[in-house]
Amino acid sequence: MADQIPTAEPNSPEARDVRYHLHGYTNARLNEQIGPMIIDRGEGVYVYDNEGRPYIEAMAGLWSVALGFSEERLVEAAATQMRRLPFYHSFTHKSHGPMIDLAEKLVTMCPGNMSKAFFTNSGSEANDTAMKMVWYRSNALGKPEKKKLIARQRAYHGVTIAAASLTGLPANHLSFDLPLSGILRTGSPHYWRDMLPGETEEQFASRRAAELEELILAEGPDTIAAFWGEPVLGAGGVVVPPATYWEKIQAVLAKYDILLVADEVICGFGRTGKMFGCETYGIKPDIMLLSKQISSSYLPISAVVANERVVGPIMDESARIGTFGHGFTAGGHPVAAAVALETIRIIEERDLVANAAEQGERLRNGLAAMADHPLVGEVRGVGLVAAVELVIDKQAKTALEKPGLLGAAVNKALQDQGVIGRAMLDAVAFCPPLIITAAEVDAILTKFRAALDTVASELG
Ligand code: PLP
Asked: What pLDDT was estimated at residue 4?
């Protein structure tokens, strides 16, 4: 077993990892065979493994390290706050400076007319909290039957029991006895994969909106509280919405008085080439969920930002009951909040949203130039996030016999070239730090083409 990774010394970090550590999102038995890749340090867009090998982190860790791996100002912000007040909370009428400053910053910078921010520690907690807020609000409004939530296939909203139930990916449900009841599922906006022959993007978007309306009518509009969506689906394959999609979806939701929750955990803070995905797609959400790039992931923090339509009834209900009985010990942690404020300051000062738009265009154009490669089925993306769907048969849009095999092979070849991407079944994703330069984008492109060629020649 494990302590038996064939190549590792018994007390090496690899062997001890296998012995003591259960990984998230990992085939645990396979990990016993091959051991982990141990990342030791980071600098700019690079990380280095424990043998000193450099890799361009073309996924910004988990879509999240906006400022790269060595931003000294974030270290300073954390140390300064740690010395001044290392912990305080927001229960029972308490507060502190970084939490107040961050709440003000988020409420004023989010699009739409937002009212208040509530702090959580992860994207999953933000999603769970938003679900509870939506239910609490329906009760406050005297509509206890208005509780069902609509989420999409391929959605990713996290892994806690409620958030995993919103998630529309089989791996997050299988053997966990999920999803919970009360979550309705509607189709994903994956035009390339789900289009009918000859269907335009606009026709496809109309079809998805019509399906949504049918679902709402079949269930009863008064039973549905909210619709959940990432502006661009991330972990479900970097699925960019087709033309007119959000406009049509929002029209249906408005017709039946259904709240719109925008999960901006990946899109937020510049990823799509604007500060928020909602701005890129003209989305007017009632609730926005923020995390990841908010602190460049140097420390865990997330937020639920909601408008008065949501917050007003919740405040009234808290007065009726005597408290809003929800909150996390570390929610709005002062050190994490200070790091988040400094991250946002840097993104604004250095205009990294514009850099994301510019370098993103370079990346997407470079990937699009590989469209005639025999393994490339579709190149998609927006701003500084992109994916390449790999196929063996371009016409049938199919890869190898086992889904995910081709994606894993190309991603592995890419890693051997010194670039960390992410395979989501047979799509390879790119989501590098917002600080990336043109030369670093070009290096990703060169190495990705080499990885495609390697796998193509292996397949014969
Ligand atoms: N929502 C979205 C859109 C995400 O991409 C993720 C994580 O990737 C989450 C929620 C869950 O965040 P966390 O892993 O911090 O719980």
From this structure: 60
pLDDT, tens digit (0-9, with 9 covering 90-100), for 20-41: 999 999 999 999 999 999 999 9
Distance 162 CA to ligand 1 centre (A): 13
Number of Cβ within 10 Å of residue 255's Cβ equals 11
Nearest protein Cα to ligand 1, atom 3: 265
Q: Is the pTM of this model over 0.90?
A: yes
- In ligand 1, the atom with minimum distance to the C-alpha of 289 is 1
pLDDT band at 1 (very low <50, low <70, confident <90, very high): very low
Please tell me if the CB atom of residue 230 comes closer than 6 angstroms to any atom of ligand 1.
Answer: yes
What is the residue extent of each domain of the chain? 13-70+352-459, 73-350
CATH class in words for 73-350: alpha beta
Q: Spelled out in words, what is the top-level CATH class assigned to the domain 13-70+352-459?
A: alpha beta
How many helices (H) and strands (E) the chain has is answered by: 16, 15
pLDDT digits (tens, 9 = 90+) for 209-258: 999 999 999 999 999 999 999 999 999 999 999 999 999 999 999 999 99
Name the residue of 169, 266, 283 to mutate for ligand 1: max ligand atoms within 8 A of Cβ: 266
**What number does the ligand 1 atom closest to the CA of 160 have?**
16
How far does residue 158's CA lie from ligand 1's centre (Å)?
A: 5
Q: Is the pLDDT of residue 3 over 60?
A: no
Model pLDDT for residues 31-70, shown as the tens digit of each residue: 999 999 999 999 999 999 999 999 999 999 999 999 999 9
Write out pLDDT tens, residues 367-376: 999 999 999 9
Distance 110 CA to ligand 1 centre (A): 19
What burial letters (b/e) apply to 86-107, b meaning 16+ CB within 10 Å? eeebbeeeeebebbeebbebbb
How far is 376 from 451, CA to CA, in rounded Å?
Answer: 12
Q: Which atom of ligand 1 is nearest to the CA of 155?
A: 3
Handedness of CA 146, 152, 158, 160 (dihedral sign): positive
DSSP string, 193-231: HHPPTT--HHHHHHHHHHHHHHHHHHH-GGGEEEEEE-S
CB 151 within 8 A of CB 166: yes
Same fold for the pair 13-70+352-459 and 73-350? no
Atom of ligand 1 nearest to the CA of 267: 3
Complex prediction ipTM: 0.99
Q: What are phi and psi of 429, to 5 degrees?
A: -100, 150
